[in-house]
Amino acid sequence: MADRARGGIAAARLSPQEAEAGFADLHPPLDRRAAAVAADRCYFCYDAPCIAACPTGIDIPLFIRQIAGGRPEEAAKTIFDQNILGGICARVCPTEDLCEGACVREEAEGKPVEIGLLQRHATDSLMAAPQHPYRRAPDSGKRIAVVGAGPAGLACAHRLALHGHAITLYETRHKPGGLNEFGIAAYKATGGFAQAEVDWITAIGGITLETGRRLGADLTLEALRDSFDAVFLGLGLEGVNALTAEGAELEGVADAVGFIAELRQAEDLTALPVGRDVVVIGGGMTAIDAAVQARLLGARSVTIAYRRGRARMGASRYEQDLATSRGVRILCNLRPVAVHGTDAATEIELARTVETGAGLVDTGEHLRLPADQVFKAIGQRLVLEGGPAQRGGRIAADAHGRTSIEGVWAGGDCVSAGDDLTVWAAAQGRDAAEDIHASLMRAEAQPTGARIAEAARGIAAAPRGAMTALDRRQT
Amino acid sequence: MADLTTTFAGIRSPNPFWLASAPPTDKEYNVRRAFEAGWGGVVWKTLGAEGPPVVNVNGPRYGAIYGPDRRLMGLNNIELITDRPLEVNLEEMTRVKADYPDRALIASIMVPCEEDAWRAILPRVAETGADGIELNFGCPHGMSERGMGSAVGQVPEYIEMVTRWCKRYYDRPVIVKLTPNITDIRGPAQAARNGGADAVSLINTINSITSVDLDSLSPEPSIDGKGSHGGYCGPAVKPIALSMVSDIARAEGTRGMPISGIGGITTWRDAAEFLVLGCGSVQVCTAAMTYGFRVVEEMKAGLSAWMDEKGYASVAEVTGRAVPNVTDWQYLNLNYVTKARIDEDLCIKCGRCYAACEDTSHQAIAMSADRRFEVIDAECVACNLCVDVCPVEDCITMTRLAPGEVDARTGKVVTADYANWTSHPNNPAVTATAAE
Ligand SMILES: Cc1cc2nc3c(=O)[nH]c(=O)nc-3n(C[C@H](O)[C@H](O)[C@H](O)COP(=O)(O)OP(=O)(O)OC[C@H]3O[C@@H](n4cnc5c(N)ncnc54)[C@H](O)[C@@H]3O)c2cc1C
Ligand SMILES: Cc1cc2nc3c(=O)[nH]c(=O)nc-3n(C[C@H](O)[C@H](O)[C@H](O)COP(=O)(O)O)c2cc1C
Ligand code: SF4
């Protein structure tokens, strides 16, 4: 029997029906007609700002026009040519901060073209087609090791395969997909999408996936460099930052990412235990996702406690609103000082803070909240012994993805450049692949249209912002 | 409240909104409901000669062109005239007219181009009590293959001849409905007048194929894999109809002849435009077929509100108001100089004006790196394309240069004087006259 009121950490707070409804697709897909109406709103802007706002540089107005023309499959090709992870990106990108935030109709009327949903409409239609749309070039004879089968590794492997190289994709977990499979909120990638996408991407051929293989355990960078022509590291951020509060070792205190990973792998969501009163420490996307999903599992109260002011939260306004609409309470300027309880957590003690010129300081006021479960969502960190030089705790890579070690490239969350988003990982994986290809084949670097990398790779910018009439008159 | 009562070629109706001869007016049931809904008049679906009625195709008879959100912009049909027996139509018309004496009821007729055929049908139509007749010289498909409809409307001599017969055998108003499938509408209109017509109505539908199915390669609407051209109507044809109406209103030989305007009328505004260009009544088909009879409510309320606003007391006062402003290109004022102005506060930075002007016009818009758009007066010819493609209303406007200002493009000082092509130095005719 579903029982919401039971104290402590317990399963079955919800009926299967309630769980199913809560974890359903956050944004149901557009049908053909709704897509036509949405596509019709695009102005086909000149040098469209939405393209510039997409880290992978997808030609958004073009793909929308292709949908309007009744060819969502062609639209999908436009998307995948730039970003082979266009399917997951359509679901998880914080579009309000990216393309849709830049859409001129956002400025005009606060209602941007629904680029994310249109992208999903297009990519879903092509991914449902029987054939993978790309053909691998004839075998180049080159072999490349890609470590980490998350978005960065997958984007890199696919682009390298496209050029005819042979890739071995090493993944420490028993399943590929990285955070698409273990991190993204369940309601953003429903129906086993992450695994289906991996299968679809690797269907190009030339990619051998080896799960349960770990760099730093059974694999060493030296050995990989010896036996492959190039190595790409897409390791993500496996470690979680420690909570320096008294009682942090009590039962009931856990990592948010671990909780989410468990949730994402659960066969039966009602079997998953969750606290009655949950407090999530942090202010980013992970905190939001852990809090919302804890609520969806039936937690009676869920509170996000963030140490700084609301404006500083890493999660977008849209994400914050999503959380509050699901009944999550967001409290700001509160820093955890102690978790109380005898064996297991029962309460959390928080200190009120204020931002001053000298940084964040306590006001002296303390507050206690009931908490039988506390999730830490205070940042992830790179786990890597040795290897390439680091900057700010992550691998230092240039705009090509090149690291301090010859023949070793890196991209995604594990490098210091860019934002920790799926779409950035896709862009960096792709661009590193282009650079690996160019350097192995001594070929000309090809433009990818990305907002990152292009200039550094010595490729003239895309025709955007071409000479204006004024420039011309001045020459 | 402005008075919408209309007297058109002697035919009275409580408002100028009539339903055009088409499926909405094909039978008593429809027409009664249309009158209940408030239509001022109807032109009954075209009657044919006595005997076995025509047959229609048994597959689809309409094709469509859509705007955004499946808004019907153009409709095409391959329907023929009424496929119900003449007697049935006449009986129904008699009953309806008796019950709605204040509404206009016009009989549309199409019979072979023979005097006997017309002599036979006209007395029977007269018996119904109908207020007048409309001669269908416009149907461009099917009937035209049989020497009727637009096959008559395309030959002015036939129009004149048939109109004459009608005036001889029928003593109420005769309206001639014109086909637009012709190069100069003034010829057929003049022929109607010469034949003694009391009025003309236009336009009938335009020859068209709306689309081709790219799998079956059949034109739409497809009948067993084949298609035939049909008649095009709906909002898309309005500009063509307005132009033809104004031609007739202006032509010396037809000026002042009552015109019933037809073609794409969907709102009161469309109707008002037809009226000011010379129409005394308007007829509606596609809008009613798309939205039902109730659309007349918006038309009546809107027209009357606009007339009140402008201080026009009657429909007759509105008719033809804009005709003096329709002129030939050669008389347009070449000293009227405007420049595009972009309102930076309203601009949403889509860059469509830039793309349009840069790629297809006069390279007269400058775009800065931060997406500010500015008109280069020295290049702007005031073509209006930027205004037309801008998605924001009133963001780009055309501003007139005041006399005394210098047009940066030509370097000339703008004058307040009117001057047109007929006296322009580049006009070879002017040079020829000067040389003489
Ligand atoms: C809870 C959560 C929610 C998120 N939600 C969003 C969202 O909604 N939208 C969005 O755009 N982004 C979101 N992100 C961020 C996004 O998931 C990441 O930016 C993205 O997955 C980074 O891709 P990656 O390939 O660099 O790393 P990962 O996805 O982390 O993949 C790295 C892979 O490498 C493997 N690996 C690591 N170390 C080794 C090793 N030593 N040997 C072999 N394999 C190894 C890992 O097992 C993993 O499979 C979210 C992140 C989290 C944690
Ligand atoms: C502003 C404008 C000017 C045009 N000028 C000419 C012209 O000088 N000569 C010509 O043959 N057609 C001219 N056309 C017609 C076009 O060539 C074309 O036939 C017409 O626009 C229909 O095509 P479209 O609507 O598919 O673009 C012009 C069209 C436009 C819009
Ligand atoms: S900014 Fe918006 S309207 Fe402009 S091209 Fe992009 S999606 Fe279309």
Automatic annotation (TrEMBL), chain A:
Q: Name one Pfam family in it.
A: Pyr_redox_2
Q: Which domain of life is it from?
A: Bacteria
Instruction: State the name under which the record lists this protein.
Output: NADPH-dependent glutamate synthase beta subunit-like oxidoreductase
Sequence ranges assigned to domain FAD/NAD(P)-binding in this UniProt record: 143-429
Q: What molecular functions are annotated in GO for this chain? A: iron-sulfur cluster binding; oxidoreductase activity
Residue ranges annotated for the Dihydroprymidine dehydrogenase domain, each copy included: 23-128
Origin organism of this chain?
Pseudoroseicyclus aestuarii
Matching InterPro entries: DPD_II, FAD/NAD-bd_sf, FAD/NAD-binding_dom, Helical_ferredxn
Automatic annotation (TrEMBL), chain B:
Q: Identify the CDD domains for this entry.
A: DHPD_FMN (cd02940)
Q: Where is the 4Fe-4S ferredoxin-type domain?
A: 338-370, 371-401
Question: Its domain of life?
Answer: Bacteria
Keywords on this record? Answer: Iron, Iron-sulfur, Metal-binding, Oxidoreductase
Recorded GO cellular component terms are: cytoplasm
Q: Which reaction does it catalyse?
A: 5,6-dihydrothymine + NAD(+) = thymine + NADH + H(+); 5,6-dihydrouracil + NAD(+) = uracil + NADH + H(+)
An MF annotation (GO) of this entry: iron-sulfur cluster binding
What the entry lists under SUPFAM superfamilies is as follows: 4Fe-4S ferredoxins, FMN-linked oxidoreductases
PANTHER family in the record = DIHYDROPYRIMIDINE DEHYDROGENASE [NADP(+)]
Q: What family is it from?
A: Belongs to the dihydropyrimidine dehydrogenase family.
Write the protein's name.
dihydrouracil dehydrogenase (NAD(+))
Q: Which organism is it from?
A: Pseudoroseicyclus aestuarii
